[in-house]
Design brief:
seven-stranded parallel sheet, about 240 residues, WH-like_DNA-bd_sf, transcription, transcription regulation, alpha/beta, Rossmann fold, 15 strands, 9 helices, WH_DNA-bd_sf
Length: about 240
């Protein structure tokens, strides 16, 4: 089987299955050495088509569109809770922080000291403020997809704040495209928050590795990233933090 034929077989197999193992790919390509398959996979990874990570798992990289917040709340729940609890532990009493919209960041509100001042775009965070923190909700258009506010008004208002720490969400992370989001306005807002923050943490669970959207926020190594466990990216980037660290 020629190299381009193997690549086509691998891509078609992943289109059907989404995720598989190196052993399974060796089975379907037949009579091809493991070292050759690993070279093929590395080529596809360099092209941004797939991601290969711990345990020899191979995942097809997917273009990510914005999902409704109701759907996000129900996926990877334990990973998101672990990330959020760890992120909240990095916040000191009396700090002023920014909390982004998104299901993972929203979990942080349950673990923050009452002395912390929060600026946010998230309606979820406002509605779940059981500890009675001081919260400032920015103005703007309301998105029923993210259950948050957004737009030029939001960007203008956030420019007036300085944050000791900011905690942001994203739709995808990968070596080729960096950290991405589907919305131009969201990307602009996050970039402005990054400019106005002493420290920035992206809260991203490992299911988003290899996914990408059309608007780049930053490179992976430009800010801190918090993920729920070690993976192929933590081997490369020392700025990625995990609760087990």
């Amino acid at each position: 089987m020629l190299p381009y034929e193997r690549k086509k077989v691998i891509e078609e197999f992943l289109e059907k299955n989404g995720e598989t193992t190196i052993d399974d790919i060796c089975d379907i390509t037949k009579d091809v050495s493991v070292s050759t398959i690993r070279r093929d996979l590395k080529t596809l990874e360099n092209e941004g088509v797939i991601s290969v990570y711990y345990g020899g798992i191979v995942k097809l990289n997917q273009y990510s569109t914005e999902q409704k917040i109701e759907s996000k709340r129900l996926t990877n729940i334990e990973a998101k809770k672990s990330i959020a609890k760890y992120a909240a532990s990095l916040v000191k009493p009396d700090e002023t922080i920014f909390l982004d919209s998104g299901s993972t960041v929203a979990e942080m509100i349950h673990h923050l000291d009452r002395s912390v001042k929060v600026i946010t775009t998230s309606l979820d965070i406002v509605m779940n403020n059981k500890n009675n923190l001081e919260i400032h909700l920015l103005g703007g258009k309301v998105s029923d997809v993210r259950n948050s506010v957004y737009g030029i008004t939001t960007i203008d208002q956030v420019s007036d704040f300085i944050f000791e720490k900011a905690f942001l969400g994203a739709n995808g992370i990968g070596e080729k495209h960096g950290i991405t989001t589907p919305s131009t306005e969201e990307s602009m807002l996050k970039k402005k928050i990054i400019q106005n923050s002493s420290k920035v943490y992206f809260l991203i669970d490992s299911s988003k590795i290899g996914n990408y959207s059309n608007c780049k926020i930053s490179k992976i190594d430009e800010n801190y990233v918090i993920m729920e466990s070690k993976n192929q990216l933590t081997e490369i980037y020392k700025n990625i933090l995990c609760p087990e660290d």
